[in-house]
Design goal:
CATH topology: Nuclear Transport Factor 2, Chain: A
CATH class: Alpha Beta
Structural class: alpha+beta
Helix content: 25-40%
Oligomer: single chain
Shape: globular
Mean pLDDT: 78
Strand order of the largest sheet: 1-2-3-4
Number of domains: 1
Low-confidence stretches: 1-25
CATH architecture: Roll
């Protein structure tokens, strides 16, 4: 259970939401943010630290790796939790302002602020929240 809590805190503390393009083919910004966060949590749950790190901005990767050799190593130490223990994770109160967005991640453990930034590679989870 402590590993699960660590992953949740890590996941939720890294994020702040940013906005991106309104490209018709890529879905709405809100849909993209939800998909990104779902992909991040799924990667963590499956123990795929490399895929989880790809969902983070460079700044978030560096912050995550602060006490480790890499972002992947840091997330591997906490990866593999059972997503079912969180219950349904829902992004609420999504607010998009140019290339930054904020939201709340609502789980069985409460609600935490998140942040995303629009990068050259699309939306990514960012530090702050």
């Amino acid at each position: 259970m402590s590993r699960l809590v660590l992953v949740l805190v890590l996941a939720l503390s890294l994020v702040a939401v940013a906005c991106g393009s309104d490209d018709e083919d890529s879905g709405s910004d809100q849909e993209q943010l939800r998909a990104l966060y779902d992909d991040y949590l799924s990667a963590i749950g499956e123990g795929d630290a490399a895929a989880a790190c790809e969902q983070l901005t460079e700044e978030s990767q560096e912050a995550t790796a602060a006490d480790f050799d890499s972002c992947e190593q840091a997330l591997e130490s906490a990866a593999g939790f059972d997503e079912g223990e969180f219950g349904k994770v829902e992004l609420t109160r999504i607010k998009i302002d140019d290339d930054v967005a904020t939201a709340q991640a609502k789980t069985n453990y409460g609600s935490q602020p998140l942040r995303f930034e629009q990068t050259d590679d699309g939306w990514r989870l960012a530090p702050g929240g």
